[in-house]
Amino acid sequence: MADMVVPPIGPAYIAAAVRQAGHEVCFIDAISLAIEQYTQRDRGTLLHGLTIPAIVDRIPEDTHVIGVSSNFSFEWPVCRELLHAIRARFPKTLIVAGGEHVTAVPEFSLAQSPLDAIVLGEGEKTIADLLRVYEQGGIQQFHTVPGLVHRDATGQIHQTAASTRIQDLNAIPRPAWNLLPIEEYLSRGYGFGVNRGRSMPVLASRGCPYQCTFCSNPTMWTVRWKPRDPDNLLDEIADLGQEYQATNFDFYDLTMIVTKQWIVDFCHGIEQRKMKFTWQLPSGTRSEAIDEEVARLLYQTGCRNISYSPESGSEETLHRIKKRISIPQLLKSMRTAVRSGLNVKCNFILGFPEDRWKNLWETYRVIVRAAWAGIHDIAIWVFVPYPGSELFNQLRSEGRIQEMNDDYFNRLAAYADVTQTYSYCRALSTKQLLGARIGGTFLFYGVAWLLRPWRPFRILLNSISGHLESRSELAVRGFFKRLLKGWT
């Protein structure tokens, strides 16, 4: 498995909803309960956290319903093994799963595992309805719950009517962080963003209004972006700061900044309350709303790290993948962000199915211009087709994903493990794409450091001191930690 040491905000939201519905909840976060433990698996992968038998042993014997999160598709082989182990120990207990993977391929997930039901998409209301119906009439009444794929008493699979998105995000109970040992993350500096102190995850919005063909968001969340009320969000941040002494907040939103007015209101709220904390946008954001005024407000209110996700520098590729951005506007926004003091990272993807060398060279040109603009870090990945995305469906229909086996799922982790790189591109081989990924990375840092020769020394010093400011410093410090562990 790839190593993603982040607090599980999705399951924490579901646990809170189940508790609000009047049920007793046992939360087993397999990472935090064994956060320094790694177990060797086949194919050279490592399982981080509790082993599967240890997870099953922690489930109370009198449990009536067992819920499992299956979010990232590259984790499905491990999740599937866990589900079979749970069923062997609890042969008559209802087992339910939710998350992006099982939402994208529910029938496949049911066929490969002993799951009884899958909650599709946004889960808080659906899981509460499922538990209420199950308590009153058993699985025979699951057809009355919107947003489910389930087995009936004879083993037949059924899908109910689609559920509607939750309209009032302010009414959703906050994540049940007190049900898991969150201190294990806080005290060790683990989180989604750069380690800037005790960091808690938060969500300011749900969904994304765009329809990028490589993304599974339309299947999971639909293309409706819904933000929370800024005051409601700031209340949560204030409470997390008081209860957990959190000083930094990582926003896990798919796309936090969509409209300028919302982010301006949020920043003004921080200023009016005179709140002091740092915050980050590590998962990527849009450039359209980040002008000089917004970039200044972001920095003034404690935002220190943001990521842009143009994915490609080729207008032809951008059109094909339905990535509605303007390259000139993107570069202008990045320059503005850098001038305002923000630490900026940029994400690219190479090897979309119809890419050619021409498209990669056009992306390289934008990478050089981004380095010239002063952004601090870059991440280049090779395209992988995620279940639930338009490109996944296209490649399946064309027979280019012939079987969803473990080899396929392992390739989805190529962003963290280059040995799993695999080309789904007609014109470029796996070897060529891997070389292009490495070459693009060297190109960016070569230009960026040539123009600003003090940066590599700052990266090294900050990595050693632990005063981290950028993703590259986080990566270098992680390398040093692994090296020291190897020596000891």
Helix and strand layout, with pairings?
Layout: H1 9-20, E1 38-40, E2 46-48, H2 52-57, E3 65-69, H3 76-89, E4 94-98, H4 100-104, H5 106-112, E5 117-119, H6 124-137, E6 148-151, E7 157-159, H7 183-188, E8 199-202, E9 205-206, H8 217-220, E10 226-227, H9 230-244, E11 248-251, H10 260-273, E12 278-285, H11 292-300, E13 303-311, H12 315-320, H13 327-339, E14 343-350, H14 357-373, E15 377-382, H15 390-397, H16 406-411, H17 430-451, H18 455-465, H19 471-487
Parallel strand pairs: 3-4, 4-5, 8-11, 11-12, 12-13, 13-14, 14-15
Antiparallel strand pairs: 1-2, 5-6, 6-7, 9-10
Helix pairs in contact: 1-6, 10-11, 13-14, 14-17, 18-19
**Outline type:** globular
Q: What is the CATH class name of the largest domain? A: Alpha Beta
Largest sheet: 6 strands, parallel
Count every helix, treating DSSP H or I runs of 4 or more residues as helices.
Answer: 19
CATH topology of the largest domain: pyruvate-formate lyase- activating enzyme
Number of domains: 2
Structural class: alpha/beta
Summarize the structure.
The chain has 19 helices and 15 strands. It has helices spanning 9-20, 52-57, 76-89, 100-104, 106-112, 124-137, 183-188, 217-220, 230-244, 260-273, 292-300, 315-320, 327-339, 357-373, 390-397, 406-411, 430-451, 455-465, 471-487; strands at residues 38-40, 46-48, 65-69, 94-98, 117-119, 148-151, 157-159, 199-202, 205-206, 226-227, 248-251, 278-285, 303-311, 343-350, 377-382.
